[in-house]
Amino acid sequence: MKTKTDNCDTETQLKRFIAKFDPPHQTLIRAVRKALRKRLPTAYEMVYDNYNFFVIGYSPTERPSDAILSVAAAANGVGLCFLHGARLPDPKKILLGSGKQTRFIRLESATELARPDVEALIAAAIQQAKTPLRASGRGKLIIRSVSDKQRPRRKSAK
């Protein structure tokens, strides 16, 4: 596992990671990222191009343990993960997963982030975060890890 792929800047590396996906998923990942940057302008974006998933985590600090939510993508789709989702109020039961901590929703479109029930989950996750987001400033894009071996990012043709 590497922490940098080469000497290019982080935005260029991020574009390369996203380019591994089928075009519709590329578009969705970029749109979700844009919406989350607008919603969380002071958050640090931590990128992991791991074996199973491509992940962009959003955190008030550069520490992964402080992350609040993340976008996770694989060949079969894109999801919004709430890293402490098991503690979130979910009256409409839209969160998926049964682990002790993380819950997620599948995203078909970035517009789903603006749905009142999803926005309420995002707001609750931010409110419950152990470290608050900064009130001002701009977050930074950080490439945290890149796996040498990865599952395919595109669906195989059958």
Descriptive overview:
Helices cover 25% and strands 22% of the residues. With 158 residues, it is of the alpha+beta class. A six-stranded mixed sheet has the order 5-4-3-2-1-6, with helices on one face. The model is unreliable at 1-7 (pLDDT under 50).
Query: What is Rg?
Result: 15 Å
Give the DSSP E fraction (strand runs of 2 or more residues): 15-25%
Provide the succession of SSEs.
Answer: HHEEEEEHE
Beginning-to-end CA distance, first to last residue? 31 Å
Oligomer state of the chains in this structure: single chain
Q: What is the residue-mean pLDDT, rounded to a whole number?
A: 90
Percent helix range: 10-25%
Tally of individual helices: 3
At a glance:
It is built from 3 helices and 6 strands, in the order H-H-E-E-E-E-E-H-E.
What's the topology here?
Elements: H1 10-18, H2 23-39, E1 44-49, E2 54-59, E3 69-74, E4 77-82, E5 103-107, H3 116-128, E6 141-146
Parallel strand pairs: 1-6
Antiparallel strand pairs: 1-2, 2-3, 3-4, 4-5
Task: Sum up the structure in keywords.
single chain; alpha+beta; six-stranded mixed sheet; 3 helices
